[in-house]
Design goal:
heterodimer; A: about 325 residues; alpha/beta; Rossmann fold; 12 strands; B: about 300 residues; about 10% strand
């Protein structure tokens, strides 16, 4: 039984996001939410009820949304821009680059419902490119929390940093994978399972599936390490290189395009320091019609798909 | 121009206390002056600023001289007559915000900021030099007095709307001024911001359009007509005033007259290349660099030789 099917349940990270935002806003008058007619889809209804003046809803105007957030930061506020990730990162890409990152304003860019969370709504509403686009902008941190606890920890971390950040806030329900009391820090990955034969490096929705895949592999005598690399940028290069040295094989798994995201980030480190065979699992391009669950299966982004890829990668290494 | 010989082009910009003191003296004289005296004071500052811009661009071998000269009187009027600023405390929370959305006119902004003491005017010799903080477009990380990084067009107004929203939320009385080129109004982001500014009744926000009627390649009317421009802003809920953008008295009046509950746009009719006869209204002077002989001729015309 997969972790998504267990009795402990699965969670929408947007709820944890909204709860933590309200908690932080009670203690910090600088915090405001900026959105694009996305009060409902960003789960900000309760926040707006408690802080009606602190929701800056510019309407359906993403370029203005990000520019306004930069201006609010100039005026002393700490804006959380909450918008569906495809529109935030696609439509307002230049505002993110120039107004937020290059101008160095502490704006938290929250890409809501990323990846293929909008399933049947199709590639216009999918955000598989966001990690590649955001990674390409100077030193902007790119963070993909894997569950509600990590979502809260990431939010506290980016506020404390006083710097801009991009955070993916998932809509697809995920099981809890973060060990209790585990802190989040930029540039630090979490090893969720030790292993010697291969390393599965996953983010977001794919972390629990990588853990499930490790269970499947264990049953076949393969000892897989599982790493949650929520801090895609800066990446925990020490953890990646240790995985390369100690397990000799790396599979990356992300709900995003296979160009320029987590897999590329890991490969950039591996090929320049300790080359080992890799597989980059993700979405190859525009998706066909289907639910999120269907599409994840369609692209092999399941426990069995990950296990199969890991086994294939190990083909030359061990007789699995 | 005075060369900071021996100084490192990459060194950080630091405030120039004596220039700031001179700026403060100008402000005091301005405050105490009558209307016509005020105009004369601003005109003198503008003439000197035009000369500094020409020398800066000539030394750097690049710049956007046409737009620099069309926006000069607007900048002078704001910095010497209107803005509540403290050049020696560029991050003072209560300052008025000024944003130059047409960031390609950085030389005019840098010359203005140096004239207020944000940094030493000698550093203008490093405009666009390798590793200089004075990039071809303004960078707030490097240049004190720059509020947000501009360059790509259509970015200044949304950020200004955010600034004015911050003042409104915090119930602060500082104001926000943003200067846009007319050509950049072809960018849709401006109209997103215009709509939201009136929705929020941002009465502390003033947008100034440097209406020189030329963009990089041709006239705005030939490229993508902006008229009826004032009507467009009014339709978006703004109070729209049209003034002579080279008349300091008209600019002052437009920037300081009593406000309604609406954001205000000042459409400043200007001439690209203003003050230098052979540059005026010439589309080629968008970013052409004058020769040494042309700079000399221009400075003579400006009475700044």
């Amino acid at each position: 039984m997969s972790r998504e099917d267990t009795s402990s349940g699965t969670f929408d990270c947007r709820q944890a996001f909204a709860d933590e935002l309200a908690t932080m806003a009670r203690a910090d008058a600088r915090i405001v939410a900026v959105c694009n007619d996305s009060v409902g889809s960003s789960n900000l209804v309760a926040f707006r009820k408690e802080f009606p003046e602190r929701v800056i809803n510019v309407g359906i105007a993403e370029q203005n949304m990000v520019g306004v957030a930069a201006g609010l930061a100039n005026g002393g506020y700490l804006p959380f821009v909450c918008a569906a990730s495809p529109f935030l990162t696609g439509r307002a890409l230049e505002q993110i680059k120039a107004d937020v990152v290059y101008s160095d304003f502490p704006v938290v860019l929250c890409g809501m419902s990323p990846g293929m969370a909008y399933g049947e709504l199709g590639p216009t509403h999918h955000s598989i490119e966001d990690l590649a686009w955001m990674r390409a902008i100077d030193d902007l941190p790119v963070i993909v929390p894997a569950d509600p606890d990590e979502t809260r920890a990431v939010m506290r971390c980016v506020v404390a940093s006083g710097k801009p950040a991009f955070v993916r806030i998932g809509r697809f329900k995920v099981p809890a994978v973060t060990p209790e009391g585990q802190a989040f820090a930029l540039g630090r990955a979490a090893t969720l399972r030790p292993g010697r034969d291969v390393t599965l490096i996953a983010i977001g929705t794919m972390v629990s599936r990588a853990l499930d895949a490790a269970d499947l592999l264990a049953a076949r005598g393969i000892d897989a390490r599982v790493i949650n690399a929520a801090s895609v940028k800066p990446l925990d290069t020490a953890a990646v290189l240790a995985a390369a040295r100690e397990t000799g094989r790396i599979v990356t798994i992300e709900e995003g395009i296979v160009h320029g995201g987590l897999g590329s980030a890991v490969a950039e480190v591996v090929v320049q320091n300790h080359p080992v065979p890799m597989r980059i699992l993700g979405v190859p391009g525009f998706a066909p019609t289907g639910t999120t669950q269907f599409l994840l299966e369609h692209f092999g982004l399941t426990a069995s798909g990950i296990a199969k890829a890991a086994q294939a990668l190990l083909g030359g290494k061990m007789d699995a | 121009m005075h060369s900071p010989s021996g100084s490192d082009p990459s060194s950080s910009l630091v405030a120039d206390a004596s220039a700031a003191a001179r700026w403060r003296t100008r402000r005091s004289r301005f405050v105490d002056a009558t209307g016509s005296e005020r105009v004369a004071l601003l005109a003198a500052t503008s003439a000197a600023l035009r000369a500094t811009v020409l020398r800066t661009i000539s030394a750097a071998g690049l710049g956007h001289v046409g737009g620099d000269l069309s926006v000069t009187d607007i900048l002078t009027t704001l910095f010497d007559g209107v803005l509540r600023i403290e050049p020696l405390q560029p991050q003072w929370a209560g300052r008025d915000r000024f944003i130059l959305s047409k960031g390609h006119c950085a030389a005019a902004l840098y010359a203005t900021l140096a004239g207020c003491g944000y940094f030493d005017a000698a550093r203008l010799a490093h405009f666009a030099a390798p590793l200089s903080p004075l990039n071809g477009h303004p960078n707030r990380r490097k240049v004190p007095g720059v509020e947000t990084n501009t360059g790509p067009l259509g970015h200044g107004l949304p950020v200004a709307v955010g600034c004015a929203t911050a003042a409104q939320l915090a119930k602060q009385d500082w104001r926000t001024f943003v200067v846009l080129g007319d050509g950049e109004l072809q960018e849709g982001s401006n109209w997103e911001a215009a709509m939201y500014a009136s929705h929020r009744a941002l009465s502390s926000l003033t947008a100034v359009i440097d209406r020189n009627r030329l963009q990089q390649g041709a006239g705005t009317a030939e490229t993508n007509e902006l008229e009826p421009l004032a009507d467009k802003w009014r339709a978006f809920g703004w109070e729209a005033l049209t003034v002579n953008g080279h008349d300091h008295g008209e600019l002052l009046q437009a920037f300081t007259s009593p406000r309604t509950n609406r954001p205000r746009v000042v459409i400043a009719d200007t001439i690209k290349g203003r003050g230098v006869s052979f540059m005026e209204n010439g589309v080629e002077w968008h970013h052409k660099v004058p020769s040494a002989a042309q700079v000399d001729a221009a400075l003579k015309e400006l009475g700044q030789a």
